[in-house]
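Instructor's aside before we start: the two examples that follow are unrelated to each other. I chose them only because their records fit on one page, so don't look for a connection. First example below.
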Amino acid sequence: MRRSARLGAAAVFIGFVLMLGLSRVPFLSNTLLGEEGMFAALVLSPTPPSAEVPNGLPQQLIAQIDGRRFYGVFEHPIVPYLVMERGIGVLGRAAHALEGDFTYRNQVARGCFFALFAVGVLGLLWLAAIALVDTRASAPTFVIPAFVLYVLTTPLLLGASIQPQVDGSVGVMLMGLAAFAMAAGQGRALDKPAFWLAGILIGLGRIEWVIAFAVAALAVVIAQVALAERAQRLQPLLFLAGLAVGSALSYLASPADYLDGINVMSRISATSNGSFEAARQQRPLLTPALLTAAAALAFSAVRPRAVLGRASGTLILMLGGLGVILGFAASNWSGDGFPRYYAPALVALAVAVIDLAGRASWTSPGRIAAVLLILAGLWPNLQFARDRLARDVSITSLPGTSLAAMRAQMATSAAWASAEHAIPLENSSIWLYYPSISFVSKDLGLAGAKELLAENNPADLARLRVP
């Protein structure tokens, strides 16, 4: 790339980064609800959770009773939580959120997690910037920037990007960096360390990712052997080696949390009835990820031998991302109604689409048709954002829930706790707005709350209130 083109791409990239930030600003002040309070405690609590538990590792805040905090293990590999508490949490605590008003507390909490998301999609923005300054007659030009704009404004990534949770923050960061390393590294001098590093990054994330991407890499290797394609056979093997290293590091960081993650995955899989009912209910949020996967499959099907020989990393991203989506869909896990689990896979699939689109030959009518189609899909995204802002409802946990109603409910619970010495069963985020009151997280359920109180002090059972 010529120097003038690099400077142009850099200027466009900076513009895209600013647009990304501005698109999230209106939602950063949204009230936290559901499990979001647990994750906010990792980055905002003046005393980090790891400093208050025996094993010295991050844990989730599940209750506060008469000034004493109670924590529970996350039951997932610990590295993402370490990144939150000891990484971005350094900046979060330095912001002294609890000294500001409720809006400031929301902005700092969501802003910390958005920062992690932003790191993960910088590769997407850079690829879009490069495409825009590409002067080749057959280049996709406006197609790729329009596609990136569509992906980043989907309800799924809009909500996941500002949610205090794992998948949209550290998940997108790990997956996005890994995807960019593979797509940008293949066919270049640094391809081998890029694939190895990508494997490590994905290995540090969810166990479900490791399974899906290991199967994807093995499938690519088998296809290369079957078709006698030797050009990039070493890359998938290095990626697999990186997966093993990342998984080993994740296990060594906390063997108990890693094994708990396997148990949780097994329990959820055992309860699945194969109906895909949760995925059907979440179809409006999941559809963009499926469309992106379909686009990647369509591009790769045009010249499969060429893609297998020259873009093995892109194939791994496509198959691995699709595997993650299908795996979570098959689990039939609905969680809190917001399918954040698909967010990292959507980013990986988006990188695959961009790379495959850049390898295709485009005619002027084809480019125009593609841009118009993407813009047609962009319109519902913009309408979604406008509607949710106007109605002041959640775009993350418990989608569509009135945030004003949640604020009123937590204010009532805080009044009970203060005036009646009660222990409300409430959103864990109540600690952020009323730091000194007693509460038990409603994520434990009524039975779990009673069990916790009985174990701590049976007399406290009479103080329990359900809003």
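Example two begins here.
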Amino acid sequence: MDTGRSELEKAANPATKAFNRESYFTKISFDISNKTVKITAKIDTGATYTVIGLEHKGLIRFKDEIQKSSMRGIAYDASGTELKLYGYVVENFRLTDEIILDKIKLFFSEDIGSKALLGMDILSLFDFQYLKEKRQNYGTFWINNYDEALKDLQARRLNKDTDYIDPILIADVEDRV
């Protein structure tokens, strides 16, 4: 097993079907009610949260279940528009082939349609970097030292009663240190 780094799978922009250096999309997946949902998400280092649109075709059948979640909140997009968020714990969250989190809280919203953003709540759990490719018009996102980060996440699960990773709680603790 390579413990050095793991590459986020590069995916085409779902709207334009193109690859370019202005935006980077990756494929993620997770399970809800023992069903795997596959999503193409934009990596957005300016987004505080990972937010997945409830209008995504793979989520339509789970929309009511997610919206009944007691974990609700709000966030604001880059233009200052309020987004209603539903926090929901998913299983087997796959960031890369090597990075799979058994249970993690993600945010979902009707307000972004079928779009998905992979934000800093998850990215900041890891040592990530972007490397521009010389002969291409885009680069590659890497997660470095992922094996150590995964061990650290398991050791630091903050909410033992619910046994899931809550990226926001981890960030809050790190901010206080």
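DSSP finds four helices and eleven strands in the chain.
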